[in-house]
Amino acid sequence: MSLIAVDGVDTAYGAVNVNRDVSLSVGEGEVATILGPNGAGKTTLLRAICGALRPTRGRILVDGRDMTGQPPDRLAAAGIVMVPEGRRIFADLTVEENLRLGAYVRRDQSAVAADIERMQAYFRILAEKRGAKGGTLSGGQQQMLAIARGLMARPRLLLLDEPSLGLSPLMVKEVQAVIADVRRNFGAAVLLVEQNASLAFAVAQRGYLMQSGRIVAADTIEALRHSRLMRELYLGEG
Ligand code: ATP
């Protein structure tokens, strides 16, 4: 059974339809990616999966259980956690306080403290900057903090929205390495939305191509990468 299954989902902002009849699934520990042009509806779909936006049709299933319309804290408690585009870290809080906030749904305070140590051991920069205000970090450091904060919820599925956006090539490589490592180090699956196709191809096992709100191709990442549709629609080759 899939960890998460999106089943025939439509989304809309008011009268404006975005996603139409989207179905996809992510298995335990799998890295899947949704590729597609700007405005295709990728972010909107992630918002529906994490409970931030109620689908107008279809279902969101976690371990086969219907979680459609549940609020984000319920989905987080079920292990579905989003790291939004633009990082959204708290600029006036310290790095450590930002990490602690990632664990807001947890009750196991001693394990939370141990996980903060663990994040600081894995993301060395977060140990160095533990007392610094979030807003003083570079873009790449903020992205590491945003991912670590997401991991503090002990997710089973991390939804990552454009983690490489605006980062230097060196930092993009670091983000790529972290994503490739998430399963082994933190036991989580990942659903990644990325404009940087080479990053997505490098880390994902499965890919979905979204266009105008619909999934137009779903396959292993290798097959998708070499598909004609992918080259035509995404890479702009004729
Ligand atoms: P991008 O990579 O640019 O974020 P995307 O594939 O993630 O693209 P979405 O952000 O999901 O696409 O946007 C899909 C459509 O929904 C776009 O036409 C966008 O203008 C519209 N949209 C996004 N957010 C809102 C909102 N809060 N209210 C109304 N329309 C919105």
Automatic annotation (TrEMBL):
InterPro entries: AAA+_ATPase, ABC_transporter-like_ATP-bd, ABC_transporter-like_CS, BCAA_Transport_ATP-bd_LivF, P-loop_NTPase. One of its GO terms (molecular function) is ATP binding. Residues 4-237 form the ABC transporter domain. It comes from the Bacteria. The keyword Metal-binding does not apply. PROSITE patterns: ABC_TRANSPORTER_1, ABC_TRANSPORTER_2. Signal peptide: none annotated. Pfam families: ABC_tran. Keywords: Amino-acid transport, ATP-binding, Nucleotide-binding, Transport. Belongs to the ABC transporter superfamily. This is Branched-chain amino acid transport system ATP-binding protein. It comes from Labrys wisconsinensis.
